[in-house]
Amino acid sequence: MNAAFAPNEPPLDPPVLSIRDLRVEFPTRRGVLTAIRGVSLTIRRGEILGVVGESGAGKSLTGAAVIGLLEPPGRIAGGEIHVSGKRIDSLPRRQLMALRGKTIGAIFQDPLTSLNPLLTVGDQLVETIRCHLPLSRTEAARRAIDLLNEVGIPSPELRVGQYPHQFSGGMRQRVVIALALAAEPELVVADEPTTALDVSIQAQITGLLKRICRERGTAIMLVTHDMGVIAETADRVAVMYAGRIVEIGPVEDLIKRPQHPYTRGLIGSIPSLAARHERLAQIDGAMPRLNSMPAGCAFNPRCEIADARCRSDLPKLLPSGRGSVACWKLALAEAVEAA
Amino acid sequence: MLAIIVKRIGNAALVMLVVAFIAFMIFQFLGDPVQLMLNAQASQEERVALRLRLGLDQPVVMQFFSFVIRAVQGDFGISFRNQREVMSLIAERFPATFELVMVSTVLALAIGVPLGVFAAINPKNPAARIARMISMVGVSVPAFVIGIVLILVFSVQLGWLPAFGRGEVVQFGTWSTGLLTPSGRLALIMPATSLALFQISFIMRLVTAEMLEVLRTDYVKFARARGLPDRIVHFRHALRNCMMPVVTMTGMLIGDLIAFALVTETVFQWPGMGLLFVQAVMFIDIPVMAAYLMIVSVIFITLNTIVDFIYLAVDPRLRQTGTAGGANVR
């Protein structure tokens, strides 16, 4: 507490989440597959960091590693994860469990399957609240109603006694969010929270996440493959490719001036109404498999401007503009664009 | 909710009527009852008198009608073999079978469910592996083999437990129980164990398989992600969700055992319904067979109806006839 008044305090609060050089491995019979190869990122209080990438890029795994719910045999093989200044990746199972829900909340992809069908929404809220906060049954029930109210569920007094199947998809995702917020976590990891929902409901849910972030100061890690959701919701974006971050920066910079060839490909492949008669741009090829990673930059086989260095040396994530990019060709790429 | 219950009971009654018809047809067409009941020297007058007494001179529909009326009152006629009321024969035998089956089912649930949960939660634990291996044996070895081995070891070799019979019983009206006397309880141990071994193994394997399935679901992962302790995740969330198949199978197992415990009953000379049925088949005792068919059906239908009601109690989704609370389900 006193540290806040220290004379040489940094201008910003320490980040809620800070990941340094995270590596996640899957030992298999044919050898160890490295799914996340050195990811570093930070999220501050009240900030939404979007993590975007195609399937298998490692974005969900990064989220799972933070919650401590990697599916075995997956394991954290290196790096550090700090939440509110406390290192959590090396904690024993019991202590990590105490953090789950309490310090780190999680929102999953499919609201239809995230809730236990046999328990009322209120039961699930109350058990979660009482597991983290020293409240009596009635106090917890009151808090459950408040939470439902906060996430925008109409007539929460009635809804609290209902079962998940009595809720629509969007309402269920609101319940899931209420559950994630039950113990007022500082960080929420939302893994594809809108993917299973209609577009109109998506906007409501992203709006809700933004509001929670603003009102509660919760840091949110928003994992998605949907650039549209990122553009609407996130403050900063990390673009992942083959287990690494290739570009990270403020959302408006990244969308208006993408730097990495992969990010440019991603942004270029978003359909726009203006260019409706053109063929949609696409990135040729597919992401390399974990057991056949190319040498150098993982994107080089699909990159139009790759050269010899891209095929031999791994580019580092270096500051560029207001963000950071991992590309050898950056200077050259800008020259090409200017020409 | 009430509508569902009424509908289920209506269904049960309908099924019973169909079964009654089959039982009646057996009675009607499986040989001539008069022929079977009287010996070859009986005179024509005796035959006609019996025919009249059994109501066999009336039209088939009337006969079926009176058969149902009498069946509902528990009157299944007179056993050909020992000239006694079929119902009183069954009433004598039923408690023995029922007691045996219930004790072994309670054993099976009390041991099988926790073992199954344990094996699912700790798949690599050596004790769980051994339990799974034994359960493999338990589902494959027939009950009578186990019964014979038990008799050989505990009665013949060690002389600890009685090899046959029910021991002393206490009468409560028409119901007799061996649970209240030491010798009755001792006599129950081996038959119940040999019946329960299959059930324990079966239920354990079922619970393990279901638990492994449920533990992979999103809501269990989400429960973990909310930081709920293992105890709550495993029992409140996971186990409850795999109770449906367990309830179904337990219901069927109970019915199955009551109806077909005859092998075990034969091995242990247990004075239950199985033994009665074997004797009825050997003597072509049609009234007993027809009554047996009816009673077994009643038991199955009752159990299935109870299982349905347990479903309703466990799963809120089934209680729903429409969508309440203005929710729009996608």
From TrEMBL, chain A:
Keyword list, A-Z: ATP-binding, Cell membrane, Membrane, Nucleotide-binding, Transport
Listed GO CC annotations: plasma membrane
Family: Belongs to the ABC transporter superfamily.
CDD domains reported in the protein's UniProt record: ABC_NikE_OppD_transporters
Organism: Mesorhizobium zhangyense
Gene Ontology BP term (one): peptide transport
Name used for this protein in its record: ABC transporter ATP-binding protein
Higher taxonomy: Bacteria, Pseudomonadati, Pseudomonadota, Alphaproteobacteria, Hyphomicrobiales
Occurrences of domain ABC transporter (ranges): 19-267
From TrEMBL, chain B:
GO biological-process terms attached to the record: transmembrane transport
One Pfam family hit: BPD_transp_1
GO cellular component: plasma membrane
CDD domains: TM_PBP2
SUPFAM superfamilies (alphabetical): MetI-like
Domain of life according to the entry: Bacteria
Residue ranges annotated for the ABC transmembrane type-1 domain, each copy included: 94-307
Record flagged with keyword Transmembrane helix: yes
Record key words, sorted: Cell membrane, Membrane, Transmembrane, Transmembrane helix, Transport
Entry keyword annotation includes Acyltransferase: no
Subcellular location: Cell membrane
UniProt topology in membrane: Multi-pass membrane protein
Membrane-spanning intervals of the chain: 12-30, 100-121, 133-156, 186-207, 246-270, 290-314
Family assignment from sequence similarity: Belongs to the binding-protein-dependent transport system permease family.
Name of the protein this chain belongs to: ABC transporter permease
Source organism (scientific name): Mesorhizobium zhangyense
